[in-house]
Design a protein that fits this description.
The structure holds two protein chains of two kinds. By secondary structure, chain A is an alpha+beta fold. Helix content of chain A is 25%, strand content 28%. In chain A, a hairpin with a 4-residue loop joins strand 4 and strand 5. The chains are: A alpha+beta, B alpha+beta. Chains A and B meet through helix 7, helix 10, helix 12, helix 13 and strand 27 of A and helix 5, strand 1, strand 4, strand 5 and helix 8 of B.
Chain lengths: 805, 361
């Protein structure tokens, strides 16, 4: 909220600067976001008249003006479009100081010498509007010092008022806050006494005291609605409010001054002489002051005449009953409305105003009456006419009394403030209409009720905050809580994700972070069913309409991005939630392309990121989780399998599924060529884009602890053998055959080479296997190794594998 | 064989040995060949020593020591030359052309955690040492956990502070990780000391300083007699561990619906050391001359929150705080655009070496 320093001084006696005020406000919890100087902060500017205007010889948009200040003539180059001969304008003469440190000197502008500058309001720091130069009153004498003739100097502070302090959304409100907390006297606040004109013939009818606890109405007659005096225009302008006419300006002035939203109706437009504060009926509508039509319903409180709604209560008036220059009779409303109700209305109608901003945060129920009087006094002084006494309905609830003691406050804060200081805070807080009583029989205890405008003080915690704010957060000591047992740790799924990401990181994967929102198009590319996705009701954009069922779409986008930026080799992984079929799955996914390192001068050290490399990283990372690897099931029994979210992304023949207790928990394989094309991944890259995703929610929590097998202390012997077998026989069958030979001394089998071509019959391949033998109780002999080998070869024969001759 | 023949043979062997130019032997193989010629199984000296058995005992007594002496002299001569040859070999190797040590070394294949993970882990680690355990919860929440139980009733203007994404069934994307605190408190009786790190969502247009998706680390401590002074102590030590012992911490009044009293916590500016003036003598642009930067929000748990989870606010008290992970990471590495975190350019990701945890020292 914009607070004018000079306005604030009308309520509060103080001498400190705007900067000091900002610091004090900050310490009280009101952050000052900016300080702006408004008004005539300049020197050397006088009133002058334009005598002649010619086009600048070298610039289309500039003019050359002859100007006089009454005694001398000046040639001025000017860029404004709104100048005319005869106008009186502010002239900054050579040597003038303008706001923002600008100094005027004689200068050539495109070849024409200019001895000064004709100023706009903005250049003089008088307002932010930029409608060309400031045209002065034609009656103004020439040569006058403009810093004396143009309004008051003030600083405007932009103060952040947090939602719990609506009572500070006005100059009086903030002055009151500063007054009690800094112990500075508030200037006496005069409640005007109006000569009684008798009650009007008007009645008010409030349908629900819950909706509208307080309503005060007054009727004005014989008003002269017209422009406001300049002090009022300036005041409102300084806090960013446009002047409309003297009557409407008074309501806005009272709003910014006291914090009470008011509304004025053209009473001659209203049907009948009764005001109804009621819920709207279905089918009713209103064209509001913003010239938009709003359809109303029973959730909206309206101010109506006998026929129809004339205002959306607490939010905005109707266009038809607006007070205009022709208006003679005015009905002034000053009321208090239910905060939650007004908020529902602003949300439902998507309509907000300065009034609704205050009403939905809560207003002082005692204020409508005072504000109505103040407004009446001001309207009469500016627009003449006469005013009736008030018709009103009031149902004011007092703030609850809170029982506490200085000891309790110190206990809550961990502070050692003196009881007298705390009690003094209580006393000052409860002034201005609240109450403070010593509790009989309970030593040191008080019963405190906050004033009516402090809607935020409901409990002891609220009082503790008030004490801390006023006596200073920095005065509360620093204390360390005692240590806690058992020691802190990560458990369950958090520990699992932690472990797996650490392991993946060790195998060269960089961690990526993507948004949870993706486009519908990306969603469908995975093969997921849109009906099972979770859509946002209020997405930010087309690209982010649905929650991701998989992390792979994001990683594929990252791959695309990296390719476009010259990065062709990388391993990325991401951990995060995937949303599908009513579940929030904990996913771990990755993508790998290119080589590691991408380029290396020792060629043999650069390893391709191929299927087996990626699979190896995963098998290693998931060790202990008891997963088994199978080729991707081409035709799963259950089409609603969890992996159906992403199956479409994987190459059907170059993908393995990881199963835990028979259930598919993850896929790893080559990106499906079709997906690659759709994701705009170039053919060279497509050859080797490997992706994986695990649904960790389907895994056991943590891997089984590693077990240790003692080693044989006797030397081992090894043999390489080559066997020839049909090409289609998988390596797993070879391993199984070796296992079935049940050779006890065989400790390890390693695949050394796969070969086909020369000397190998077509349709066959040769596998070279290294077998390592040892015994646990003695050194193995050559003869024993030969016996074992023979047994193994015997077993291999059963799958058609013969020793290569 | 008689002794004079034998002696003659020995003389001949001695002659042959002395004819050998040891210093001309340049490699171990040639030296070995020499050794075999004299000392091998069928070497000249070996044969001669074998044949000594054919002599009489007196002759043996006289001649054997002589022969043995010659043998051991030869052996030590060979050993000495062998040592020299070895030395020559090392010298040759050590004097040869070395490697081009400036060639690019091969880095191990190793990834890195995202800078946000590193930042979050570092905070969690410090808080872990202070006894805060890790807790998590769902990203899709209901109104009750995200708002109502946190003392933000429906139609309360405090909801303006938390622009929300909604999904079906009146569920929403959590706007803070505080719902995790509600879940934790409903599950367990105090005392309780947890952090809830994680992802949160705000319905805000994305630009250089705003992200609709970001991360928080929130902390909660509930016990008997927990005070605002405890909050100050905990956060001050936490921030010192995170940013260094020289920083200053400032608490200012603020408002959050779920805490009372509430505080905004500021840190002395990391860039101008709290002076408000940069190294170039110009006003510090990071703290805007104030010498302080806003770092986190905190406060004493509101009694209404305790009531909502079934804790008696007359018995229990506690504090809570929340810190933005992106903000800390941006400050730490001077990253200007929050969107950089979500681009996943490997050139970006590879810059963040694992964060040091210097406070262990």
């Amino acid at each position: 909220m914009k607070i004018s320093l000079s306005w604030l001084k009308e309520h509060l006696e103080f001498n400190f600067s705007a900067e000091d005020l900002a610091e004090k406000l900050g310490n009280l919890g009101f952050e000052v976001e900016s300080i702006e100087r408004k008004g005539p902060y300049f020197k050397g500017v006088v009133s002058a008249q334009i005598l002649q205007i010619e086009k600048h010889p070298n610039a289309d948009r500039l003019s050359v003006c002859q100007v006089t200040d009454g005694s001398d003539k000046f040639t001025i180059v000017c860029g404004a479009q709104n100048i005319a001969v005869g106008q009186k304008v502010p002239l900054a003469k050579v040597g003038a100081d303008l706001p923002g440190g600008m100094k005027i000197s004689r200068s050539k502008i495109r070849g024409v010498e200019s001895s000064g500058m004709i100023c706009s309001g903005k250049e003089l720091g008088l307002g932010s509007e930029n409608g060309g130069i400031l045209v002065l009153d034609s009656k103004l004498d020439l040569g006058k010092d403009m810093s004396l003739a143009l309004g008051e100097k003030t600083e405007i502070l932009d103060v952040a008022i947090l939602p719990n302090r609506p009572d500070c959304l006005s100059h009086l409100g903030l002055a009151r806050e500063l007054s009690w907390s800094l112990n500075i006297p508030l200037k006496p606040f005069k409640i005007p006494e109006l000569a009684s004109q008798g009650l009007p013939d008007w009645k008010i009818s409030v349908a629900s005291k819950e909706d509208c606890p307080v309503y005060v109405g007054r009727v004005f007659e014989n008003l002269s609605v017209g422009p406001s005096p300049s002090w009022l225009v300036d005041r409102l302008g300084s806090v960013g409010i446009k002047s409309i006419n003297n009557v409407v300006d008074v309501t806005n002035y009272i709003l910014m001054d006291l914090g009470q939203p008011l509304h004025v109706f053209d009473a001659d437009v209203l049907e009948g002489t009764e005001i109804f504060i009621r819920r709207a009926c279905a089918g009713e509508s209103l064209v509001a002051l913003d010239d938009k039509k709003y359809d109303l319903n029973s959730d909206v409180l309206v101010i109506a005449d006998k026929n129809s709604p004339q205002a959306i209560a607490g939010v905005m008036g109707g266009l038809s009953s607006a007070v205009l220059s022709k208006t003679k009779r005015v009905f002034l409303e000053s009321a208090s409305f239910n905060a939650a109700l007004i908020r529902r209305t602003t949300q439902a109608l998507r309509l907000k105003s300065e009034s609704s901003y205050r009403f939905e945060r809560g207003t002082d129920p005692e204020l409508p009456e005072i504000a109505s009087l103040k407004a009446a006094e001001l309207i009469l002084s500016l627009a003449g006419g006469k005013v009736s006494d008030a018709v009103s309905q009031k149902n004011i609830k007092r703030n609850p009394a809170i029982v506490t003691s200085a000891f309790q406050i110190n206990q809550a804060l961990g502070s050692d403030f003196k009881p007298a200081d705390i009690e003094d805070v209580f006393l000052r807080l409860s002034g201005n209409g609240g109450s403070l009583e010593r509790k009989e029989g309970k030593d040191g205890f008080f019963s405190l009720a906050a004033p009516s405008y402090r809607l935020d003080i409901e409990s002891r915690a609220d009082l503790a905050e008030e004490v801390a704010r006023v006596l200073g957060y920095q005065k509360i000591p620093v204390h360390y809580p005692k240590i806690s047992f058992p020691p802190a740790r990560k458990t369950g799924s958090a520990a699992r994700v932690d472990l797996l990401s650490r392991r993946l990181k060790e195998t060269g994967f960089f961690e990526a972070y993507n948004y949870d929102f993706i486009s519908l198009a990306d969603f469908e590319l995975c093969g997921a069913k849109t009906a099972k996705g979770v859509r946002l009701k209020n997405p930010l954009s087309e690209d982010m309409t649905i929650l991701r069922p998989t992390l792979l779409t994001g990683l594929l986008r990252n791959a695309q991005y990296n390719f476009n930026h010259g990065n062709f080799s990388f391993r990325l992984f991401e951990k995060g939630a995937g949303f599908y079929d009513g579940r929030e799955n904990q996913l771990l996914s990755g993508i790998a392309v290119g080589k590691f390192p991408e380029i290396y001068w020792k060629k043999e050290r650069s390893a391709e990121n191929d299927f087996y490399g990626v699979l190896g990283a995963l098998v290693d990372s998931f060790s202990g989780f008891e997963l088994d690897c199978f080729p991707l099931d081409p035709d799963p029994e259950d089409p609603d399998l969890d992996s159906s979210r992403i199956r479409a992304l994987f190459h059907p023949k170059k993908t393995v599924e990881f199963r835990f207790k028979g259930k598919v928990v993850g896929l790893c394989g080559l990106l499906h060529p079709q997906s690659a094309a759709r994701w705009d991944i170039s053919p060279q890259q497509r050859e080797g884009v490997f992706i994986f995703e695990f649904n960790l929610s389907l895994l056991k929590k943590l891997p089984s602890p590693a077990s240790f097998k003692p080693l044989s202390e006797f030397p081992a012997a090894w043999r390489d053998i080559s066997v020839v077998l049909a090409e289609e026989i998988p390596y797993s069958s070879v391993l199984r055959a070796i296992q079935e030979s049940a050779v006890s001394g065989l400790k390890r089998v390693e695949l050394v080479d796969i070969f086909s071509g020369e000397n190998i019959e077509k349709g066959f391949k040769s596998l070279t296997l290294r077998m390592t033998f040892s015994l646990n109780d003695r050194t193995i002999t050559d003869k024993e190794v030969e016996t074992f080998l023979a047994k193994i070869l015997e077993s291999l024969k059963k799958i058609g594998a013969a020793l290569r001759s | 064989m008689n002794s004079s023949d034998w002696e003659e043979d020995l003389e001949r062997v001695v002659c042959e040995v002395s004819a050998e130019n040891f210093s001309a032997i340049l490699n171990a193989e040639d030296l070995e060949r020499l050794r075999i010629r004299f000392l091998g199984r069928k070497g000249l000296l070996t044969e001669l020593l074998k044949s000594i058995k054919d002599l009489s005992i007196e002759e043996r007594k006289l001649l054997a020591p002589k022969a043995q002496k010659i043998k051991s002299q030869l052996e030590s001569q060979i050993d000495a030359r062998m040592a020299e040859i070895e030395k020559l070999r090392f010298e040759k190797d050590l004097n040869s052309q070395g490697l081009d040590l400036s060639l690019p070394p091969l880095s191990p294949l190793r990834g890195r955690f995202h800078p946000l993970t590193q930042t979050q882990n570092q905070m969690a680690h410090i808080l872990g040492l202070m006894g805060f355990s890790w807790a998590e919860g769902p990203l899709i929440e209901d109104d009750e956990h995200n708002f109502t139980a946190l003392n933000i009733p429906e139609h309360h203007s405090a909801r303006d502070m938390l622009d929300t994404f909604y999904v079906e069934d009146s569920k929403l994307m959590r706007t803070h990780t505080s719902p995790v605190q509600i879940r934790a408190m409903r599950q367990k009786q105090p005392p309780l000391r947890i952090i809830s790190p994680g992802r949160v969502f705000r319905h805000e247009a994305i630009d250089a300083t705003h992200s609709a998706v970001f991360h928080q680390v929130e902390g909660l401590y509930v016990d008997k007699n927990v005070t605002f002074a405890d909050l100050k102590g905990t956060l001050e030590e936490f921030l010192k561990a995170l940013f260094g012992p020289e920083i200053k911490v400032r608490f200012r009044p603020s408002y959050f619906p779920f805490t009372e009293p509430s505080a905004e916590v500021d840190l002395s500016c990391l860039f101008c050391s709290g002076t408000g003036t940069g190294r170039d003598g110009r006003p510090c642009g990071i703290c805007k001359k104030t010498g302080f930067i806003e770092i986190l929000g905190a406060g004493m748990v509101h009694p209404n929150v305790f009531k909502a989870v079934g804790y008696d606010p007359e018995i229990w008290s506690g504090f809570a705080f929340g810190i933005g992970v992106e903000r800390i990471a941006m400050l730490k590495w001077q990253i200007k655009d929050i969107r950089d975190f979500y681009q996943n350019d490997v050139r970006f990701l590879s810059q963040f070496k694992d964060a040091e945890l210097a406070f262990f020292a």
